[in-house]
Design a protein that fits this description.
heterodimer, A: 121 residues, mainly beta, seven-stranded mixed sheet, four-stranded antiparallel sheet, 11 strands, 0% helix, B: 110 residues, six-stranded mixed sheet, five-stranded antiparallel sheet, globular
Chain lengths: 121, 110
Amino acid sequence: EAGVAQSPRYKIIEKRQSVAFWCNPISGHATLYWYQQILGQGPKLLIQFQNNGVVDDSQLPKDRFSAERLKGVDSTLKIQPAKLEDSAVYLCASSLEGAMDRVEATNEKLFFGSGTQLSVL
Amino acid sequence: GQNIDQPTEMTATEGAIVQINCTYQTSGFNGLFWYQQHAGEAPTFLSYNVLDGLEEKGRFSSFLSRSKGYSYLLLKELQMKDSASYLCAPLSGGYNKLIFGAGTRLAVHP
């Protein structure tokens, strides 16, 4: 079974530039997550999609970050314009279910991609 | 709001046992995950508890007390490769939002 695919693996940009990350979840997974992980900290949830709808974006800095999941499959996360404090690893994850009427609790297990390491100079 | 507390760092000796504690406060609790993350890598699933009690899986066990908002991860027969960060993550809300703690960096030495 193919895992969660992310690209690019690394990205270096200057502040005020734009950047986009791409994620292709595991086939059949309804829920897709974008996390930001700053060095030495735990992953911070930015946005959660259930199919192609947003179910949580409470911690997404909407003045500069945007994300979409067209057709309920792959997703892109964009930062425009980038700031120095956006330097982090951006992790995409997917899970099978994500809703309360799940049959198997472990369907909520998240599978993570390798992440995109962003450096803003 | 949500709050997750776990120790920042721990050290242990190869072959020993270590317990990593986690306390949490969430709304709409649906279970708790433990993930392992090696430096420079993505988190990988270790365990999931939804009912009170101990879940054992090989060298790793995880315990949950819902009434106390408390969980721990127990690692036995420590190996050098167990040096990693261990992330406590309660699942909450109608759409099962997974929020991670800051993680506990475990260093295993000979």
